[in-house]
Automatic annotation (TrEMBL):
MF annotations from Gene Ontology: polyphosphate kinase activity
Residues of the Polyphosphate kinase-2-related domain: 30-268
Xref: NCBIfam families: PPK2_rel_1
Protein name: Polyphosphate:nucleotide phosphotransferase, PPK2 family
UniProt superkingdom: Bacteria
Family matches, as SUPFAM superfamilies: P-loop containing nucleoside triphosphate hydrolases
Organism encoding this protein: Pedobacter rhizosphaerae
GO aspect biological process, one term: polyphosphate metabolic process
Keywords recorded for this protein, A-Z: Kinase, Transferase
Keyword Transferase attached: yes
Entries under Pfam families matching the protein: PPK2 (PF03976)
Family according to the record: Belongs to the polyphosphate kinase 2 (PPK2) family. Class I subfamily.
Length: 293
């Protein structure tokens, strides 16, 4: 599955098209086989997280973007269930507050970045500013930017500058030790419909559904174009996009976990090795402890 799945990484060397990707790809796995593989991947990530924390050299930033009901929340819950809570942090970004609108669009995301040795998970991210805001450019007016007092002023040049800001932001983070993993959970329109109906029919899931979800669903084609544009404009070698087939949640969780594990393994993380002086102090401490009554 790993070799086949590499074809779903967008690194900017060729144009990405949502229409040319499968949302129901499963890599030859079935649900039971994927479940066992996911357990193994989570164990591996847990061991790697310990080394990440001990080495204190890198941080890992994991971004999830998707249409409603694509499975972001459940992916985070399942894939990250084996992590030590002390070494990770999850942020879910909603509509900006008045304070956040008084700063540049990256400010609140910068505040939420993980420290070295930690894993940061962003449920939605700075990409909302070129996704939702591109479909609803009137939201940009709330930023009160000079020269953008009317929606008609928000043109191609505006979006070009915003993509550039994101690329520069991510390049800066990478240069300073932050490993960025960007996941687009690619769910089909038919599967979204099915999951929306399940939320309506199940009283325990009613809270997940809003009438506004139907209004956004009507703009599906606009969103798909916004995603294509964002992915093509911001996929780089240091911060590529991973396109995850999301019609089968069990496969999406496995794919995400294996990508995270593979990336963390590639960092060649090691536990710190003490120099001779510090090792000597450890030995002295051990002798002191052994000599206690």
């Amino acid at each position: 599955m790993k070799n086949e799945f590499k074809g779903l990484i967008v690194q900017g060397d060729k144009k990405f098209s949502i229409k040319n990707t499968k949302t129901d790809f499963t890599g030859g796995y079935n649900k039971e086989k994927a479940k066992d593989a996911l357990v193994n991947a989570k164990i591996e990530i847990s061991h790697l997280q310990e080394k990440l924390y001990a080495a204190n050299k890198y941080s890992v930033l994991i971004l999830f973007q998707a249409m409603d009901a694509a499975g972001k929340d459940s992916a985070i819950a399942h894939v990250m269930s084996g992590l030590n809570p002390q070494g990770c942090q999850v942020f879910s970004f909603k509509v900006p507050t008045s304070e956040e609108y008084d700063h540049d669009f990256l400010w609140r995301h910068t505040k939420a970045l993980p420290e070295r040795g930690r894993i940061g998970i962003h449920n939605r991210s700075h990409y909302e500013n070129v996704l939702v805001c591109k479909v609803h450019p009137e939201y940009i007016l709330s930023e009160n930017l000079p020269g953008y007092e009317d929606v008609k002023n928000i043109n191609k040049q505006f979006w070009k500058q915003r993509y550039e800001s994101i690329r520069n932001f991510e390049e800066h983070l990478t240069a300073n030790g932050t490993v960025i993993l960007k996941f687009f959970l690619n769910v089909s329109r038919d599967e979204q419909k099915k999951r929306f109906i399940e939320r309506i029919d199940d009283p325990t899931k009613n809270w997940k559904f809003s009438s506004g979800d139907i209004k956004e669903r009507a703009l599906w084609d606009d969103y798909m174009q916004a995603y294509e544009d964002a992915i093509n404009e911001t996929s780089t070698k240091h911060a590529p996009w991973h396109i995850i087939p999301a019609d089968k949640k069990w496969f999406a969780r496995l794919a995400i976990s294996e990508i995270i594990a593979d990336k963390m393994k590639s960092l060649n993380l090691k536990f710190p090795v003490l120099d001779d002086e510090e090792q000597g102090k450890l030995n002295e401490s051990k002798l002191t402890l052994l000599g206690e009554d």
